[in-house]
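Anyone? Bumping this.
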Amino acid sequence: MASLEIDGVSKRYGDNLILDGVSVDVPDGAFLTLVGPSGCGKSTLLRILAGLELQDAGSLRIGGHEVSHLRPSRRDIAMVFQSYALYPHMTVAQNIAIPLILRRLPLWQRLPLMARLLPQARSTLARIDAEVQAAMEMLGLTSLAERRPVQLSGGQRQRVALGRALVRQPAVFLLDEPLSNLDAKLRVHMRSEIAQLHGRLGTTFVYVTHDQIEAMTMSTHVAVMMEGRLLQVATPSEIYADPADLRVAEFIGSPKINVLPARVGADGTLTGVGLPVSGSVAAAPGTAVQLGLRPEHLILRRGGGRGTVSAIEDTGPERFVSLVLDASDAPVVARVAPDHCAGLRVGDDVSLAVLPGKALVFDHAGARLGFDHPAMTPGEFDHVR
Amino acid sequence: MSGGHRLGRLARAVRLVVLTIGAAVMLAPFIWGLAASFKPAAEIWSGSLRLLPESFHGWENYTAAFNRAPLGRFLVNGVIVCGGILIFQLIFAIPCAYALSKHRFAGRTVIFGAVLIGLLIPIHVTAIPLYLGFARLGLLNTYAALIAPFAISVFGIFLFRQFFAAIPDDLIAAARVDGFSEWAIIWRVVVPASWPAITAFAIFSVTSHWNDLFWPFIVIQSTDLAPPALGVVYFRRDESGVDFGPMMAATVIVTAPLVVAFLLAQRRFIDGITLSGVKG
């Protein structure tokens, strides 16, 4: 167990800057998820942590010790790969045992006959075997010990890969999109299994994914990456409710956050949105800004002539109502409980309001701006849900 | 529907006929040789085309083959030379192909280009310089002269590089994280995952060198060192007349190990395919 400090790591392939001075401190025992669209550099960062790639600049410390110059096997990390990367010619038990055998038995003791002849090697092997058994038991693999990877299902292979990683008791676990080759149902199951594993081991986890649900549900810390930079590192709820950057707000959340162009009025209020938003922006009057509105923070009312319903998607527990605002032509999606929009049809005339204090304001480049809003007056939003 | 089915059956029948004719054409000389090895000389020259011998002369032909030339010696030479060549080829080609497919280093494309050019150059082009080199080194008429020129196989490097390129990078990365050294990755991770390619290469290598006449003919004078194909030639020369029965018997004996080895390897080949495949 150890903390992990990433300090100013940069990586360039030819003319492409893949990582641009990434810094993040991961406290001991944290579950950090690196999330971002494909090509954002998250996997490269993980491979640099593992020592499979070398950074051009920056330093890495595990438990306070610089590890940049160390080979992968000396860094006290274990890694789980997207393709599982199990050794196809070895059984489940052998796959899990191999990192321990390579670590604890010197080369000459690994020769086929030596292990049987030397009492010392024999006792080491017995200890390894006990640890492998314990790991297999923990992951429910005991009955599969003698199978080869081809004879296993995707979920079982994933568990073997986890077993091979955890048997070493590393200081840091690195997981590179471990669930993306599984079907949807199994993914949800393995998601909670990995989160539970983290809870039980208490080891530092660094988890790479492009799936925001995985990031939000499993992590203690989420780091959103884009174009080689870390945009924000925070807890899942902070990332969602308090994004530092429009790109973070757009990446996290489904359906995507609505973004409407607006302008700062004389007294700091927002104008030109096409719906009333109370509050004042910390920016000079006349500045063009972008207003971010989460679909669940919109209140839909029939009539009022502010917009027209263009589509309704029913997911069961809630409906996504798409509409076009008359004022801006911008498409907007509202997330509504079925009871609140029963009988609503495409083409219906509606008006929108924003839950107070929920509007997010960003400048033209996407940086978050301060936005003061008046306190909610009692009774004003009684009709809300 | 039934028409389509019948067409399928017809197509299959046509395919079978074409393949059978092809196989018959390829096998005919060998089958004729096999038949001749059981016939007396008079019958071979009789002019009538008959597969089965009228009088069985097999025992005489085969004992004659073993008595008149050291056939056993030729076979042992064949095993030593082909085995030696194959072992060296694997020792050199596998690490080289691994480096070419899984490591990034300056000059990689140039080296691979050189390998591809090497594929285009037949032994006949380099034979004379090689002969002169071995003559200077005093190595003519030795096993070394038979083995050394083939110890590095560009074909092997090329074949393995293509096969290794299909091994997922993640598997190599996992091995590095687990603590395998680069050499251990080659011999304990890559090689076990590559049996189909290694078997295929072994078949190519052993057949071509077992049957090779050109190079042994150039560097070997002693009967004791002759590999099988050259041995058959000596056999004919020593007889100073052509006695086809025993000669065909010798040819059959010389070919048999290859056929047996191929059948065994084929089995291994299929095992290899079912063992490989990381994602399955």
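Late reply, but here is one note on the structure posted above: The mean pLDDT of chain B is 86.
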